[in-house]
Amino acid sequence: MSMPYVAPPDNGLDLVYLDEALLIVNKPAGLLSVPGRGEDKQDCLISRVQREYPEVLSVHRLDMSTSGLMILARSKALEREMSILFQQRQVHKRYTAVVTGRPEPESGEIDLPLITDWPNRPRQKVDHDIGKPSLTRYRVSGFDPVQHSSRMELEPVTGRSHQLRVHLMALGHAILGDELYATAEVHAQSERLLLHAMSLRFAHPLSGDTLSIESSVPF
């Protein structure tokens, strides 16, 4: 049985970047990116941003449990431009995660096809027959021998739902605090999912200049 949705308190927008075309904000962990089904799931990042910037449109999403950088477009035309950049994999994203154990080798690629686990939605699963190609690059940046956990930098080349969480679980190193994919013990090691979208790099849809945005990791 899923837990009721309780949105985190609204402490104002954590606005990282703003110009005439785009708005980039830090989404807090536990907040939906866009409205869910039902009256109880209307408080979300886009609704909070639209109170101050009514014109903005969502371009991509982060999992409710994930924190970090999200891009919003300030017109329909710009939303279309940014969607094309995402489809063409021209938006380079990097995440930080803390996972259980110590991955070996300490850098590499996870190339495992993913598909929705329909009876257990919203879970995803590895499926070598009908899964969609999914690729994650990773690098271990630190190891904590007390907690027996590793800090990792992750670069999703594809953008499948729950990709990083499923790929790391499949590697045997689930993300701490992951209520969907970690064991009860690993889930209990953190009050939140330790996954943060920390970096975005892409060509600005109007100027063509490279935009690099960073966000400090809150854990």
Please name the defining characteristics of this protein.
alpha+beta, 4 helices, 14% helix, 32% strand
User: From the alpha-carbon coordinates, what is the Rg to the nearest angstrom?
Assistant: 17 Å
What structural class is derived from the secondary structure elements?
Answer: alpha+beta
Main sheet characteristics: 10 strands, mixed
How large a portion of the residues is in β-strands, by DSSP E? 25-35%
Mean pLDDT: 96
* Shape summary: globular
User: What is the correct CATH architecture of the domain at 95-195?
Assistant: 2-Layer Sandwich
Question: Could you give the order of the helices and strands?
Answer: EEHEEHEEEEEEHHEE
CATH topology assignment of the domain at 95-195: Pseudouridine synthase
CATH H level of the domain at 95-195: which superfamily? Answer: Pseudouridine synthase
- Number of extended strands: 12
Characterization of this structure:
By secondary structure, the chain is of the alpha+beta class. The chain has a domain at 95-195: Pseudouridine synthase (2-Layer Sandwich). Helix content is 14%, strand content 32%. The protein is built from 4 helices and 12 strands. The model has no long low-confidence stretch (mean pLDDT 96). Belongs to the pseudouridine synthase RluA family. GO terms for molecular function: 23S rRNA pseudouridine(746) synthase activity; lyase activity; RNA binding; tRNA pseudouridine(32) synthase activity. Dual specificity enzyme that catalyzes the synthesis of pseudouridine from uracil-746 in 23S ribosomal RNA and from uracil-32 in the anticodon stem and loop of transfer RNAs. This is Dual-specificity RNA pseudouridine synthase RluA. Residues 22-168 form the Pseudouridine synthase RsuA/RluA-like domain.
